[in-house]
Input
Amino acid sequence: MNPAEHESMRAQLPLAAAGALQEHEWIAVLEHTAGCESCRRELEVWGSYATGLRHLPQPTIPAHLLGRTQRRVLHERESSLERRQYGLMVMALVLLSWATSFAAWFVTRSLVGVSLEVFGVNLVGALPWVLFSSILTWVTAGSAAVVLSNYRHTRRSV
Output
């Protein structure tokens, strides 16, 4: 047996002592230890460790742990669903905002014509309208975020 195969078998000795090998691996380890004195002694040492560990007291699982874990998983799932719903709601509000802005621009241009100048700026031009409506949208979205945040915080504390 070459040194690489020997080291491979030696690495499996702790698993063999713990009974964690498949049957064909266990048989290969037994065949190897039948002809290798150092590995046989090492397997015996690992076997005594495994036997000693089996005799140690096993920790008990607290009775409330399962219920607490289930409640936490359900809470995390609910929070995740709530975050997803808020994300979808924000996306819908953004789309509604842009659609409303475009419709308002179209109606305003239809009513006042192609020019509505204030301080030398054509307010119904595409660029000023987009800038103004974007600022208005962000201010509205920020206000909505603050309101939703306060709503979520008060709802959780109740």
Q: What stands out?
A: The helical segments are 3-11, 13-18, 23-35, 37-55, 65-112, 126-157. The chain is about 80% helix and 5% strand. Residues 78-157 form one domain.
